[in-house]
Design goal:
With about 100 residues, the chain is α+β, with helices and mostly antiparallel strands. Helix content is about 25%, strand content about 15%. It contains two helices and four strands. It has a four-stranded antiparallel sheet with strand order 1-2-3-4, with helices on one face. The longest helix has 18 residues.
């Protein structure tokens, strides 16, 4: 669902990704960029994904793909990603 909040700002919301855990939107689309909110490893029902860091990373990426798809975009257009790891020992696996 896309909802205009200002003339050039659109709130992006999809049921195909983890629902927001607070009072924020999954993404904001502007004429030139899309700002996607941080994702946690949770499925579209909000249930946390158990398993390896690869499983959790995959779920976060699937959420991002769903949000970008709702905004009529794709992950191929992403130019910047920030990842927060709680254990640097997971770095190689998260990047694989």
């Amino acid at each position: 669902m896309l909802t205009k909040i200002m003339p050039d700002y659109i709130v992006v919301a999809t049921n195909d990704a983890c629902p927001p855990a607070g009072p924020y939107s999954q993404a904001i689309k502007t004429p030139h960029q899309i700002y996607v909110s941080g994702q946690i490893p949770a499925d579209k029902t909000g249930s946390l994904v158990e398993g390896s860091i690869s499983d959790k990373t995959r779920q976060c990426i699937e959420n991002i793909i769903a949000i970008l798809s709702e905004a009529q975009s794709s992950i191929k257009k992403v130019v910047k990603v920030t990842v927060f790891l709680t254990d640097m020992d997971n770095f190689a696996e998260m990047n694989s």
